[in-house]
């Protein structure tokens, strides 16, 4: 499901209402980004042996975080929570669009760790950038975790 949500700051609402009241142009709206692309470090290997590396993750809803708590697998093993949660918010990996806990279980551990960190970044921090420091020159810069290969910008 692809969804874009329109939001406005209180200032934009007031300005838009004033402009409409004067017969002015319709209020300007900004788009809230709800889906984020990513590239897995290793990739998901499907049943035919095809490796899928790119994918999409959408922002989580409150329901996404609550529903897994009722899952019997999560009740038996709390570590399974991340598998169920990630399977709810990943909408595509390569050409695979039917993402379910079984697909997430088959990921390499490094790819699951990547998706857990990616989930935290887009849902808690609102972006996919990470601050890093070069070990050679101590230069600080930002890296976009949403994709690209190591060494590329």
pLDDT < 50 stretches: 148-153
- By DSSP (H or I, 4+ residues per run), the number of helices equals 6
> Given the C-alpha coordinates, what overall shape results?
globular
What's the SSE pattern? EHEEEHHHEHHEE
- Helix and strand composition category: alpha+beta
**What's the pLDDT, averaged over the residues?**
81
Fold topology:
Blueprint: E1 5-7, H1 10-21, E2 30-32, E3 35-45, E4 51-58, H2 62-66, H3 72-76, H4 81-89, E5 90-93, H5 101-105, H6 109-125, E6 129-133, E7 140-144
Antiparallel strand pairs: 1-2, 3-4, 4-5, 6-7
Helix pairs in contact: 4-6
Structure description:
The chain is 35% helix and 25% strand. The chain contains 6 helices and 7 strands; from the N terminus they run βαβββαααβααββ. The strands form 3 sheets. Strands 3-4-5 form a 3-stranded antiparallel β-sheet. α4 (81-89) packs across α6. The relative contact order is 0.14. Residues 148-153 have low confidence and may be disordered.
